[in-house]
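Researcher: Please predict.
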Amino acid sequence: MDKEVIFNYGCLGDSLEIQANQQGYTLGKNADVCEKIRKAINMCGFHVATESQVNSMFKKLQSKVVKSLSELV
């Protein structure tokens, strides 16, 4: 059975690892990288990127986050 996992990628959300942990998952060794990417995308959104570009970047990050997920033991 598939389980839905929801992430908030905005600036004010908890770290991705905390969000994953609250839902029974971990990002493992990719937690720091994913978090740095999230922060960088948000900075781009404030300064240089269009909304379309930011959405595209978040889709790519979402793919990386989903591939990194594993259940907490």
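Model: Helices lie at 16-22, 31-47, 51-68.
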